[in-house]
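Hey all, quick one. A colleague (J.T.) asked me to put the beta-D-galactopyranose job into the tracker so the inputs and the C-alpha cells live in one place instead of scattered across chat threads. No bug as far as I know, just bookkeeping. Sequence used:
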Amino acid sequence: MEKILLGNKILLGTCYYPEHWDESLRKDDLRRMKKHGIEAIRIAEFAWNITEPSEGVFDYSFWDRFLDLALAEDMAVIFSTPTATPPAWLSTQFPEILNARMDGTLLRHGARRHYNYNSPVYRRFASRIVEKLAGHYAPHKAIIGWQIDNEINCETDEFYSDSDTAAFREFLKEKYGSLKALNKAWGTVFWNQTYTAWAELRVPGPTVSNSVNPHQVLDYIRFVSESARGFVKMQSDIIRRHLKKGDFITTNGMFGSLDNHRMNRESLDFYTYDSYPNFAYCISEDPLFPQDRHDLNDRKWSRNLAEVRSISQERFGIMEQQSGPNGWNTRMMAPSPRPAQMSLWALQSIAHGADYVSFFRWRTAVFGTEIYWHGILDYSNRDNRRLEELGELWKKTEKLSVAGLAGSSYQAAFAIVRDYDNIWDTKLDAWHRIVEKESDAGIFRAAQLCHSPMDYLYLGDSCHPEDLPSLSLLERYPVLFYPHPAIMTAERAKLLEQYVEAGGTLVLGCRSGYKDPNGRCPMHKLPGLLQNLSGADITDFSFVAPDDGRITVDWDGTEIEAAVFNDIIEPLDGTEILAAYKNGWYAGKGALSLKRHGRGKVYYFGGAFNRDTAKVFLEKLKIAEPHRDTIEVPPGCELAVRSKGKNRYYFVLNYERKPAALNLKREFTNIYTGKKLSGTVDLPPYGVLVLQGEK
Ligand code: GAL
C-alpha cells in the first residue's frame, strides 16, 4: 500500500469498529467508505478481549481476517493499542490496576479508562498485549500507522490508587533527594505539614475545604504528566521495535495534566487531535460545557487547533472529527450538524494545518454508552445527507491535494506564549485562574475578529529546562503575548530578554513574575525576574472590586478596560507610562508601561486582556487584519492562511447561518473550481472558500 500520510495529500478517514458489526457488513462498509472518499480507518482501540479473551490466551484470527479484507479493498489502517479498556478478567483478578477516586474508592469495570498508569501489574499486562499486537500485526501491508491507547488523560486526569502513591514517593525522592529539600520546597512548616519519613507522603487526599498544600498539588500534576508520558513511551518503544518502515506512531486527544509537547517529541511521529466543535451547541447544564452561544461557538475550536499545531509543528492530523449529533446516554446532548456544518468543521481543521481528517465514526453504535454519539451513518445504515456531504467534501479535499496544500504550514501574525508550570499551577490557583482564563479567551477572540491568525508557543516546563525552545522559534513572531506568567524562571526570563534585544515586541499582563517554579511567592519586587525587562515596578495591586464597575484606561485617546485584576505600575528609569487608570481608588496611577530595548519593546499592562482590550492591542501593534490589503473578511468569518514555497492558501470560513460577502482586492484562484476570482464574492452559510495566490 502506498504511503499516504506523509504530507503528500489531504486524506480523509473514519473510525471503524468491525467488532461491533456482523461480518457480512464489513466488505460493503469498506467499499462505501472508499466510494465517498474515506481512504484510511482507525481500528481496535478498545478491543483487548478480541485478541486476549482470557489471561495469556492469544487469538489473532479476527484482525488477521479483517486486515486482509482491508488490504484487498485497498483501505489503509491505523491500528490501535487497546490499553484504555482493560478487560474484565484483568480488572477482577488484579484490582490494583484500577484507578481510585481521591477518597480511595476504586473505579470498577463497566466504562473505560478505569486503570492507573503506575500499577506494575498493569504495566506488565499492557506491555505484553502491545508486544503481541505489534509483533503480530506490524508487518501487515494494510497498516500505515499505530495509535497508542485512546485519549490519554481523557475523562480523568486524577489518579489516587496505591500504585500512584508509591510511584509519587519515588518521583519526589528523585526530584528532591531529601525530605529537608522537599519540606522547604513545599513550605510544609505552614500548618504543621512537615514530613519526617517518605512513607508519610501520599498523593493528595480529602482535606478540609479541599485545600491541599498547593506546592504538593503542583508536583502531583507534574507527576501525573510524567506517569502518562512514561506509559505512552513504554508502548511506543515496543511498537517502534516492530514498526514497518514508513509507518508512524501517534496518539489522539489533547487533555490536561500532560506535557503533550514532550510526549509527542519522545514517543510519537506526530500528534492527532479529536475535534468536536458541536460541544459549542450542547444542551447541558454541565459546567464543563458552558453555553455562551453568541461568542464564537464552534469557531472556538480554532483555539484548540492552534494548540495542537504547537505540539506537532511539522504536521498533525485529526483522529476524530465530529460527524453527527452527539451525546452519551448520560450527558452532552448536542444537535445535528446543519447542512454543510460537518464539512465546515473538517475544513476548519485543514485550514489550521491538519493533513488528515478522520470522522468519528462510520456508523452510529447501536448499543452502549454512545448510542447518541452519531457517526456519518445512522442506525438504519441507509445513505443519508451526511454521507452525501462527505462525498462532496472529498471532491474539495482532492482539489486541495492537487493544489499542493498538504505539507504547507499555517502562517500566524503573532503568538501567545504558554508554559506548563503556569498551566498546571493555574489549575489549582483560583486567584490566578480567573485572570489567566480571561486573557487566553480574550486574545483568541480578538484575533479571530481581527482576522489575525495566531499560534501558541510553549516554553516547556521548568523540570525539563532542556525543553526551552530556541530563540529562533520566538523570532518567527514580531509580537508575543505572554499574558500572565506568574511563575517565572531565570532561563525563561533570559530567553525573553534575547527575543526583545533582537527586536521583538513582548506584551505582559498583570500578575506576572510573582511565583517561583514551586508556586511559592518569593520576597522580591514585582514582577520579579521580569522587572529589568519590563522596566515596571508593581507597587500595589487589587482584584477589580464588584462595586468598582469597569476600570478603564485611556491609551492615546482610546479607552480600554483593565479587567479582572489591576497592577499599579511605577516606571523604573527609562520606562514610559503610556496610560493611567481613569477610575477606582488608583485613578491616575500607571496602568500601561513601555520599555524600549533597542528596536525591541516590552509593554506591561496592569489588567487582564478581555476581547475588546486585546483588539486594541492588536490594532496598535499593527497585527490586526494583516491581510487587509488583499482580502476583506466580515467579522463572522475566520481567515486562515497556509503557505508552502511561494504558494499561499487562504481559507475563509463562514460560521454563520447567513451568507457572507468578501471583498477580494486582487485576483485569486478558487481552488475548487480553478477559476479566477476578484471583487465581491458571496459565501453561503457554513461555506468555506479556499483561494490560492502567490506570496
Ligand atoms: C472521544 C473518544 C471516542 C468517543 C468520542 C465520543 O473522546 O476518543 O472514543 O468516545 O469521544 O464520545
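Adding what we noticed when we looked at it: The chain has three domains: 11-158+229-405, 414-620, 631-694. The CA atoms of residues 88 and 109 lie 6 Å apart.
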